[in-house]
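Bit of a strange request maybe. I'm writing a small parser for structure token strings and I need a real example to test against, not something I typed by hand. Could someone generate the tokens for this chain?
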Amino acid sequence: MSATLEDPDQTATAENQALVVAQPDTNPTVSTPTVDFAPHWLRTSATTTLLVAIAGTAFLYLANRPLWHTDLWDHLNYGNLILKTGTVPDVEPLMTMAAGVRMVNVAWLSQLGMAALNQNFGLTSLQFLSALLGAGSLFLVSRLALLRGQSAAAGILAGMVFLRLNFHELLVIRPQLAGLLLYCIVLYRVFQPLKFSRLTLVLFPLLFAVWANLHGSFALGLFLLAVSVAGRCGDVLIRSRSLNLSFADPEALRALLLLQLCAAAALLNPSGPAVYTEIFSVSQNPNVESMFEWSPLTLRSANGQWYAVAVLLAAFSLKITPRRIRCGEVLALVGTGLLAAWSARMLNWFAPVAGLVIGVHLTAGLRGLRTAVRVRTPSEPAVLWSIASVGLLWIVVAITPFGKHLLRGTTPDNSRLLSQQTPVRTVEFLNGLENIPRGIAFVPAEWSGYVMNRGPQAVRPLVNLHVHLMPEEIWKDYLRLIRGPSDWSSIMDEYGMNLAIVSKTEQPALVRKIRDSADWKAEYEDRQGVVFVRRRPV
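Reply from user aminoacidic:
Good idea to test on real output. This should exercise your parser:
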């Protein structure tokens, strides 16, 4: 028996045939050759152009969404500091109550890029960037499902599942979006039944070297590479029933080498090996447990319900599929699925895998229905479809706020750029104050990033959304304070708070308590919140 085996996915199946089978020429004396002088890499197909149109629609929607009011501003604040100082801080540099706390800023390069874009092109560039990352991830998932399933329906279904599971995460601008695109690139590569080339052994370590400076999700990329190793070994073991052949398989060994090179490349960052410990320490930080997006998924939440639907649909797809199921697919689906069940934040990484599995195998299982309703489209790549794709992309880019800014110099008002939850008028009032009360200020964690970015420098919030950097006792006091406890006044006295910016919708009990106190007065109020100032500063 040979020590090398044919790749399982190279076996021809009915599902791996072209979308349209060429009909025999009824007149052998007449030939109508198709001439296309463009090189192969410039040609694309009608189905790819269809996926470009779908991704372009998603891009246009995301590029016109207002900027969410939470994570973005904290990351911009750190990015502005890195731009100003030219160094990546190793201790918390912005929050007074966390001064001196060790900081491993894995996302420093993302923050730097976001701050540079904002300073040079304005907020519309951040809208554009986030939409590009989200739509690019959608296209890669859909395109991979199209290639694996040889069906436009597989690509469209995969994209629908991805969007439904990941919709909320795509609306929040943060470094995680850059990690998502790179994650989909790795997924695109390891799920393709192609052999690892020498170029892959060079480009992928470079990708991980960059990724480890953009976001901590590079660890999920390493997980996918590990899955590709285990999956290849499993596929060979199932076919050969030989452990020796499984462990000696050349493709598995190349995949293992690639995993090692990428894991080593991730060490090329300002913090070195500390990035690995930081990833695990953040998820285990007791402060993180209070954040809803880090909580386990439950059927009481919409995300939990859609997750359950996706799991059942994936299981059904694998049950009815006539295609060979690769071990790597199952391992990736189960692994990311368990992570998502453990923490809602991990749904972001389950969505691409679930979309791929459902798109490819459900359309294969329902091939009879798909054949009955599908519309035949030209399968031969042509340069005209490439031109159509580029034209679609140009149109959607030109009509985004950023495109209009570049082409016409117009910029939307803040009412269209910023979400309604952003405390714009509150910060405008603070900027108009001649004397900012001294000391630490109470500011909702969701607002503190915007207040620090656009408000007076004298306002020093108690906390921000980088909760893993806050001392546990301070974060617990903040959580008690937002609930409006009976001892709220003593907590504020302990921290020397003379200024309180309180959300009327999120902290109504605290608003009532402070409003009823004779020691405080409301200096400003709008539909969102109230600015209280202590009558006699402590």
